[in-house]
């Protein structure tokens, strides 16, 4: 039986997201869903020298009560340079940075207007680099249910991952300091562990 999971689209998803979708044959996304503030749709966390920092993509308008597919990125703010500098500062000396960063840099340089499309392209690259052969499909909310699991709305910044049943931290090499920071952006794992990333994710899947 084909395993398909209905999921939310995140900006450089964290490790919990990937632990939750490993083993799926297909991911089903719903661009018509309303944009939710304080979600992972436009933010991710990376490990900096002295702290865990948040990268946020600014959006046009104020608290828009519209569908995710209509959210436009605000390029009047210099967020691209901020994100590029932040990623370089955090991971420029990581073992696999020089191999993987150009893939993402090319997408940043496109100045994609739609946040949905930006996230879609970045996630496609992440799945490819991880070696996770899962299909991605867009579905209208008006169509009949055609998925086996639904985790939409469950992965939220306001609730710790420890309270959900998807992810248990599996430590790996990180830059800066001795304490391990779990559940960061997938960028942290990819830049630090490269081809070993998928194996680490498999070990981090929470046993039911």
How far apart are the first and last residues' alpha carbons, in Å?
20 Å
Helix content: 25-40%
Q: Work out the helix count.
A: 6
Structural class: alpha/beta
Strand content: 5-15%
Radius of gyration: 16 Å
**Sheet having the most strands:** 4 strands, parallel
The tally of beta strands, per DSSP, is 6
Query: In the residues, how many domains can be counted?
Result: 1
Low-confidence stretches: none
Mean residue pLDDT? 94
Strand order of the largest sheet: 5-2-1-6
Morphology: globular
Order of helices and strands: EHEEEHHHEEHH
Protein name: WbqC family protein
Organism: Algoriphagus ratkowskyi
Can you describe this structure?
- The chain has 208 residues and is an alpha/beta fold.
- The protein has one domain (4-204).
- Helix content is 31%, strand content 11%.
- It has helices spanning 15-21, 79-91, 97-108, 115-130, 186-193, 197-204, and strands at 4-6, 26-29, 43-47, 52-56, 135-138, 149-150.
- The strands form 2 sheets. The chain has a 4-stranded parallel sheet with strand order 5-2-1-6, with no helix packed on it.
- The chain is globular and about 50 Å long.
- It starts with a strand and ends with a helix.
- It comes from Algoriphagus ratkowskyi.
- InterPro entries: WbqC (IPR014985).
